């Protein structure tokens, strides 16, 4: 059911997904959908929760892949988030609709703390605590907050110069942490996750 909801939301935007269409595509009855999720909002919440879990798993992998260079890891993490916003059809549909002021799933991705904002913040805080135990807790917390908020901001309103956001956000977080920033990538080179 969630696979079909993902496909319909990616194709149409969540605002245009009807429970009847979802039931038909998933080959289940509408009462079955309501029994499983409660209502349309429950389907949306479950869909966002599942997508958030996938996103956070990918982010954790990216951070761990670069854990010997914290600045580079943070830059790669931001690049991963922005890449998902651009290339994941579901996230892209939600963000495109949100830019037009219409998508009902955006609150699940931004203003409601769970699962995306708090999940990403918790993940980054824990990762920073693991790789930078010598840095004060308050600085790690502030850096994690900055990383998550600026990444979401860049997802919603991409910078005028594509590809610059990961390095800029990582430099800001490194300044908060009091560590060396990652080396600037050569012009025209984006960081791959």
Question: What key phrases describe this protein's structure?
Answer:
193 residues; mainly alpha; Tetracycline Repressor, domain 2; elongated
What fraction of residues sit in β-strands?
under 5%
Q: Tell me the Rg in angstroms.
A: 18 Å
Number of separate strands: 0
Please name the CATH architecture of one domain: Orthogonal Bundle
Largest sheet: none
- Spell the H/E element sequence: HHHHHHHHHH
Low-confidence stretches: none
Q: Supply the helix-strand structural class.
A: mainly alpha
**Overall mean pLDDT:** 85
At the fold tier of CATH, the topology name of one domain is Tetracycline Repressor, domain 2
| Annotation field: number of helices | 10
Roughly how much helix do the residues carry, as a percent range? 55-70%
**Looking at the structure, what is the overall shape?**
elongated
The top-level CATH class of one domain is Mainly Alpha
Compute the separation of the termini in Å: 30 Å
InterPro entries: AlkX_C, Homeodomain-like_sf, HTH-type_TetR-like_transc_reg, HTH_TetR
Keywords: DNA-binding, Transcription, Transcription regulation
GO molecular function: DNA-binding transcription factor activity; transcription cis-regulatory region binding
Protein name: TetR family transcriptional regulator
């Amino acid at each position: 059911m969630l696979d079909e909801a993902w496909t319909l939301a990616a194709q149409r935007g969540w605002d245009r997904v009807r429970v009847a269409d979802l039931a038909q595509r998933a080959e289940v009855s509408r009462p079955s959908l309501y029994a499983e999720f409660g209502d349309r909002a429950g389907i949306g919440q479950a869909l966002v929760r599942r997508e958030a879990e996938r996103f956070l798993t990918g982010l954790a992998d990216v951070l761990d892949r670069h854990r010997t260079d914290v600045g580079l890891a943070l830059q790669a993490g931001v690049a991963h988030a922005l890449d998902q916003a651009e290339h994941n059809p579901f996230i892209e549909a939600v963000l495109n609709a949100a830019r037009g002021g219409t998508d009902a799933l955006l609150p699940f991705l931004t203003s409601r703390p769970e699962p995306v904002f708090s999940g990403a913040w918790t993940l980054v805080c824990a990762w920073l605590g693991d790789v930078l135990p010598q840095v004060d807790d308050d600085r790690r917390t502030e850096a994690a907050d900055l990383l998550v908020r600026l990444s979401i901001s860049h997802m919603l309103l991409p910078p005028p110069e594509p590809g610059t956001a990961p390095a800029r956000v990582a430099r800001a977080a490194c300044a908060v942490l009091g560590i060396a920033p990652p080396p600037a990538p050569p012009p025209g080179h984006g960081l791959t996750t």
